[in-house]
Amino acid sequence: MISPSIFVFAPLASAALFTALMVVRSRNVIHAGYWLLPCLLAVAGLFGSLEAHFFVVVQILIYAGAILILILFALMLTRDVMDPKQRQTTKFAPLAVPLCIFVGLGGALMMARAPWPAIQAAAPGPAEQTKALGLGLIGDYALPFEVASLILLAALIGAICLAKAEKEPAAPEPVIDLRGEIELEESVSAGAADGH
Questions:
Q1: How confident is the model over 64-99, as pLDDT tens digits?
Q2: Which domains does the chain have, with CATH numbers?
Q3: pTM, whole model, 2 decimals?
C-alpha cells in the first residue's frame, strides 16, 4: 500500500534534487546562487512534511534568507564573477561525475541494507522540538555549531579581502605621434643656431 505522504515527499524531493543539480551544473556562479533559493525552500517543505515546524521556520529565515543573501553578497563583492572571459567552471568536473555516482550508489546500497523500523508514534509538538534543539545546540553540538559560524565568517572576510586586493587593470596609455613636433622643434633650433 502506498502511503499518502509519498505524494507530498516525491514532488518536494524532486524539486530539491533538480535545483541542487542546477546549482552544481550552472556555468555562472551568480546563477548557481539563485538556484540555491528554490532548493532550500524545497528542503523547508520536506521539513514541513515531517512536521518539524521549527526547522521549517529556521530553514526559511536563516538558510533561504540570511545565508543565501550572505553568499550572493560575497559573490558580488568579487569583481570578476560576471566577466565572460573568466572561467566559471572547474577543470575537475569530469573527475567529479564518476566520484559522485560512486558515492551516491554506495550510500543507496547502505540505506537499502539498513533496517528501517516503521514508527507509528506522532511527532512531538513544536515546544518539545524546540527544547530538544536548544539542548542539543548548547550540549553535544555546541562546538560544530560555532565552527560552522566561524567558517561562514571566514568566507565573508575572504571575499572582502579578495575584492579589495583585485586591482582594476590600468588603461593603456594612448599612443601619441610626436614625430612631427620633434622634427619641428629640431628645425626651429637648427634655424636659430644658423642665425647666430
A1: 887 788 777 777 776 666 666 766 667 777 888 899
A2: 7-82 (1.20.120.1200)
A3: 0.59
The string over 148-167, giving b where at least 16 C-beta atoms fall within 10 Å of a residue's C-beta and e elsewhere, is: eeeeeeeeeeebeeeeeeee
Within 10-111, strands assigned E span none
Mean of all residue pLDDT scores within the chain: 80
Gap between the Cα atoms of 188 and 185, Å rounded = 5
Which pLDDT band holds residue 149 (cuts at 50, 70, 90)?
Answer: confident
* One-character DSSP codes across 83-147: -TTS--S-TTHHHHHHHHHHHHHHHHHHHHHS------SPPPPHHHHHHHHHHHHHTTTHHHHHH
